[in-house]
Amino acid sequence: MDAKLSNLQPQKKAILIALCISIVLMLAKFVAYFITHSNAILTDAAESIVNVLASSFAFYSIYLATLPKDENHPYGHGKVEFFSAFIEGTLIAIAGIIIVFKSGYDLIYPKPITQLFEGASIIGATGLVNLFIGYYLINTGKKHKSITLEADGKHLLTDAITSAGLVIGIVLIKLTAIYWMDSVISMLLGLYIIYNGYKLTRRSVGGLMDESNIDLVETIINILQKNRKEPWIDVHNLRAQQYGADLHIDCHITLPYYFDLNQVHQEISEIDKMINGNADRKTELFIHADPCLPACCNYCKMKECPVRQEPFRGEIKWTVENATKNQKHFDQ
Question: What stretch of H or E contains 162?
Answer without folding.
Answer: helix 147-176
